[in-house]
Amino acid sequence: MAKSRSAAGEKQRRKPRPPTPGERLRKHRERLGLTLRDVALRTRALAERQRTPRCFISTARLSHIERNNASPTLLGLHVLAAVYHLAPVTILRWYDFRTRRIL
Question: Of 23, 37, 79, 80, which one has the fewest beta carbons inside 10 Å?
Fold first, then answer.
């Protein structure tokens, strides 16, 4: 019984883990009131305007990114930043990319 009490105490003392990059992207998308389909449609429109199909991100790919089963490409990161009205460097930092070391 003492073990279960200490295990319970350990769980209470643990700090909550920070959100993953995918969770941050999902929360930001939801704050904007967008569905995965809305984002996919916006990326398709952007791809058509830019005349490059590589800008399109499908709902399946977006879902994988949000569930941390995939990371966006550098182009995909820029496209998501444009759709979500974020600076690309913000998303890079969510992926723990330290820009100061390079810039």
Answer: 37
CB 73 within 8 A of CB 95: no
- For 24-46, write each residue's pLDDT tens digit: 999 999 999 999 999 999 999 99
Q: What is the DSSP string of 27-58?
A: HHHHHTT--HHHHHHHHHHHHHHHT-GGG---
Going by CATH, does the domain composed of 20-94 fall within 3.40.630.30?
A: no
pTM over 0.90: no
- DSSP-derived letter for residue 97 is -
Report the percentage of the chain scoring pLDDT > 90.
Answer: 74
Amino acid at 65: I
